[in-house]
Amino acid sequence: MRTIIQIAPEIGPGTGVGGVAHHLEQEWSRQGHRVLRFTLDEAGASFIPRPQGRVSGRLALLARVVWFSTVGTARARRFVREHPGADSICHNDALAGDVYVNHGLVRAAMKARGHYALRMVRNPLHLFTAVRDRRRYGSTAHRVVVNLSAQDDRLLRSLNPRLVPATAVIANGVDTDAYAPPTAADREAVRGSLGVAADEVLAIFVGHEYARKGLDLVIDALDRCPATVRVVVVGGSPAMVESMRARPAAVRHAARITFVGASPDPRVWLRGADVLCLPSAYEASPLVVLEALAMGVPVIGTRTGSIADVVHDGVDGYLVDRSAEGVAAALTSLTMADQSSLQAAARATALEHSWSRVAARYLDVFDQVGVAPPRTREPA
């Protein structure tokens, strides 16, 4: 039996970094391993409020990231030393743990969206993260960096030509039991609650970062695709929703767009969806893509991160250029396609990416780390 320490600001069900750590914890525990947590609570940051609101939320997020990156690093390293022989894996912020999972490269994300220098300068969190990660990748803080896609592995190397740790590529997984195709009754119930007719195509967007994930392109695409296409937007703060509602295309098509706000469980809405739209500028390995595929929902996405690794154009979804025209063309194709075939292919793709397989691959990485020569410990 192994002892595995997971270092992450939060660990819990849902999408995002905390969700990945949660699923790995479940799989390893199921196999009989002892899994320990080091989170913001263990780092002594429980006094920092959860991010809420526009200004206060950004300040709270900044405080949490800075705390876990600095104080959290020192305390996490001490926690690891107190458990000799344990395998340690870090999912975000802290510079501690033998294995680090690269859940995203902020510099790559800003470059993908354009106006790189301006985006970096106007957001102190981006600047802090970039400086911190330059230290992370140029030192022996970790032995191995796990990238979630081959594309991110290449990006990491191009952005950090003096990369010190070894790297591996392990894509995220999906719980194919929890995320399963809905019954006909469940599907009809969701669509009925939204007022979506049987002959209408329901496109769903899931995400809290509207700009990076391309919600504006999905909204603008309604000008160019059949009137039978409806859009449901899951996620985002009230301020973000208000701003997106004011977009000219959103005003023109207000009757075709439903904003449901933040939701702890995307399955509620995926059960009624015909397609997930995620025309992101940058992604590492978005969980929601595999979750949608597992529920038999095809995906419209861009060729970024792991999306191009799991979505097969014209088979279980569509890969598009990042434009409203590209999204509209895919939505139009969907309205004319054999949707039962798309749904079956989506489910088949997801079955190849179960969390049990992913967890086993991480254990292989731990084995490789275990035979590596000891590294010199660095001061926090």
TrEMBL record:
Family, similarity comment: Belongs to the glycosyltransferase group 1 family. Glycosyltransferase 4 subfamily.
Lineage: Bacteria, Bacillati, Actinomycetota, Actinomycetes, Micrococcales
UniProt superkingdom: Bacteria
CDD domains: GT4_PimA-like
Keywords for the protein's UniProt record, in alphabetical order: Glycosyltransferase, Transferase
Annotated EC: 2.4.-.-
Protein name (Swiss-Prot/TrEMBL): Glycosyltransferase family 4 protein
GO molecular function: glycosyltransferase activity
One Pfam family from the record: Glyco_trans_1_4
SUPFAM superfamilies: UDP-Glycosyltransferase/glycogen phosphorylase
Originating species: Terrabacter terrigena
EC class of the enzyme, as a word: transferase
